[in-house]
Amino acid sequence: MLLRIDEVFQNKGWDTRKKILDELRKKPQSAYELSKRLGFNYSTIKYHIEILEKFGLITKSKKGTKSVYIVTKNYELLKKYIEEDKRS
């Protein structure tokens, strides 16, 4: 179980979560759409989505009968911080 937000970015799953976030920044999508677009199985995408939701980096919204995920402002703020930290 993850305990700190920095673990979201530093463990080996970050590459997958970053791909999910990059896709969601383009447009809101369902877990199924993400799995097809990124070439990961559905359960892998759902696992990473749960982590991203837990830390408030994405949120779920209903679009008709399906759930779609949207990047939150928290991620945009955190991304800016990460980029600044890498430069130092």
TrEMBL record:
Domain HTH arsR-type: 1-88
CDD domains per UniProt: HTH_ARSR
Domain of life: Archaea
Record GO terms (molecular function): DNA-binding transcription factor activity
Any one Pfam family match given in the protein's UniProt record, by short name: HTH_5
SMART domains documented for this protein: HTH_ARSR
Protein name in the entry: Transcriptional regulator
Organism: Saccharolobus caldissimus
Taxonomic placement: Archaea, Thermoproteota, Thermoprotei, Sulfolobales, Sulfolobaceae
